[in-house]
Amino acid sequence: MKSIVKILVSFFVLLWTVSVKAEDGSRLWLRYETVSDPELLKTYRTQISGWRIEGNSPTMQIAAKELKQGLEGLLASPVTSVSDIKTGMIIAGTPESSSLIRSANLQEKLKGLGNEGYILLSTKIQGKEVFVITANKDTGVLYGVFHFLRLIQTQKSINKLDIINVPKTTLRILDHWDNLDRTVERGYAGFSLWDWQRLPEYISPVYKEYARANASIGINGTVLTNVNANALILNPDYLIKVAALANVFRPYGIRVYLTARFSAPIELGKLKTADPLDPEVIAWWKKKTEEIYRYIPDFGGFLVKANSEGQPGPQNYGRSHADGANMLADAVKPFGGIVMWRAFVYDNNVPDDRAKQAYNEFVPLDGKFRDNVLIQVKNGPIDFQPREPFHPLFGAMPKTPLMMEFQITQEYLGFATHLVYLAPLYQECLESDTWVNGKGSTVAKVIDGSLENHTISGLAGVTNIGNDRNWTGHPFAQANWYAFGRLAWDPFLGSDKIADDWIRMTFSNQKEFVDPIRDMMLNSRETTVQYMTPLGLHHIMGNGHHYGPGPWVDMGRADWTSVYYHKADSLGIGFERTAAGSGATGQYAAPVDKFYSDLSTCPENLLLWFHHLPWDYRMKSGKILWDELCFQYTAGVNSVIRMQEEWAKKQGMIDEDRFEEVKSLLSIQAKEAKWWRDACIAYFQQFSKRPVPEGLEKPEHSLDYYKNQRFYYVPGN
Ligand code: BDP
């Protein structure tokens, strides 16, 4: 009888904990739910006796609020701010703000921390064992507070803390492709967060929440506007709104940047030209920049997309990208600003493989840029595809700091509908070896500046944030925002570790939940590659909106068509990029060129990126290429079904709200994965003229059926 009562009680407790709280995802990874392991909870409660934030700058006030909120939530007891030093106190401050910190003799340790690094340390102050969170600057302390709380959120030991954490990069930036009308280019989570119409008077509480979430992962900059830029943002009536946002973000260590439309001197200044060497143009930008800094004294600088996809740029006037970038760099230089100049340039009129064009354009300019210019390079040479090799520019411009541009929003990976954890994609690129200075010259070392000793370095992520309640549309898309921030801070972090932390903070610390969901996340990107673009296929999605498969797309500009990229014909499939084809492999260092060119070493997951091969080409599996393609597509679909099965087992382990939401989205993903598979197999089969291998399903519909699908109002377009 007793045990029945016990079971019933625990059942109701479980029911209460999982059902009482409505979880809409808005709290992201900063939920601060009470530590679920009762033993651990007891331990933390005995270890932590109180806290004290030394200093009262706006940043320190934020740190204090966070620590209080975090500890109260995690320990489910009011942990108070106290003034006397007790054992188990958390003391947070800088040597400048705190005599206690000064007394702890940390000068040596603090030396290497720079402006953003921090220390978490168990040490003695006034004879008492305490926790110290310290840094040279207040922002570092705030980062340290978030790290300390993360240890408890993820149920790690806080015994004998001795953590020194310094960001490996100086710029960790979110790029918003947000338009002034609040639509978001390639945004799938609602409209833009920036409520331009009601700014600057109305400061939405969301701005603070946004800044807080970013600070918790070390993001220190935000580009507010779309790279396809609107010059109006540079007008005073908008600058005053930008300033209001900058004021909110500043205490969180976040600087504001804007995209600069190259033709702004014509559009706003009524000049006849935007030629970067024209004295009037130079003067216009100088004046404009001074004006911006009057509104926003710590304005970060400009991000520029020039001479690409219809955007104006220096080449309209016969000038180079360096001429354009340097003109703006000179304008922001006196104020400590920077220019992020994008290398995403290609032109339909250039009769060369699109994958080669950025390299051809930029390598000759190495050494010609001002020291406050970074060249922002997409991870791969085409365009944020599910899988690309690393961009050949990495390592090829040693005199110029190159900044990574990753896409967090899933333009080519299922929008905000498909569960795709992107950290493995990022990691794969960062770990790639460019070989430019011999073995070990990884992309990560190029972009953190260590390979060529650059003082500015960074990563930009095209964000997936919108005004959806859960910020990112898909609850798991939050993990991509999170992972980007963690990797921007430390490009050498593993995606598994990041996923582990994120799951624990966002959902649960329960091992039965964490382990399988982490595995599911880690596999999810490969799964998506399989059902969309296996074996190195790329750019075969629907035209314009990029929704769903479109391997048949063959209209308009060649470099916007699928047939240009897959080159399927009766003989075979794939884009020959070796010396026998476009020669793109020649843009890599010799060992990499050889590695990709040689069929025996070229990874099969990039095979058709680099090689055009006959349908009966023998794969490592022993299957012929056509059969392998069908198997890969099928494996992708089956993996999604396994994700669904895995997720179904998690019912009751987390809140019903998010459980149901993910479940529904997975069922859409399964449907769309099959659509991708069936449409692509049906399409390529006309060329291979071979049957779908035995044991695999035939496409459900005819090719015409897939080709005739029409979609209106696709989001993000
Ligand atoms: C492409 C997007 C387009 C962007 C472009 C860019 O489809 O909307 O403007 O990238 O990065 O992938 O500039």
Folded structure, characterized:
With 717 residues, the chain is α/β, with parallel strands linked by helices. The chain folds into three domains: 25-165, 2-Layer Sandwich (Chitobiase, domain 2); 171-496, TIM Barrel (Alpha-Beta Barrel), CATH 3.20.20; 530-575 and 612-707, Alpha-Beta Complex (Alpha-d-glucuronidase, C-terminal Domain). Helices cover 39% and strands 10% of the residues. It has an eight-stranded parallel β-barrel. Helix 3 packs parallel to helix 6, helix 10 crosses helix 11 (321-332) and helix 15 (478-489) packs across helix 16 (495-506). The radius of gyration is 26 Å and the shape is globular. It starts with a helix and ends in a 10-residue tail after the last helix. Residues 185-186, 227-228, 305, 309, 344, 383-384, 411 line the site of beta-D-glucopyranuronic acid (BDP). Beta-D-glucopyranuronic acid (BDP) is lined by residues 185-186, 227-228, 305, 309, 344, 383-384, 411.
CATH superfamily of the largest domain: Glycosidases
Classify the beta-strand content into a percent band: 5-15%
CATH topology of the largest domain: TIM Barrel
State the distance separating the first and last CA atoms: 62 Å
- Helix amount: 25-40%
Question: CATH class of the largest domain, please?
Answer: Alpha Beta
CATH architecture of the largest domain: Alpha-Beta Barrel
- Which stretches of 5+ consecutive residues score pLDDT under 50? 8-20
> How do the strands of the widest beta sheet line up side by side?
6-7-8-9-10-11-12-13
List of distinct ligands in this structure: beta-D-glucopyranuronic acid
Structural class: alpha/beta
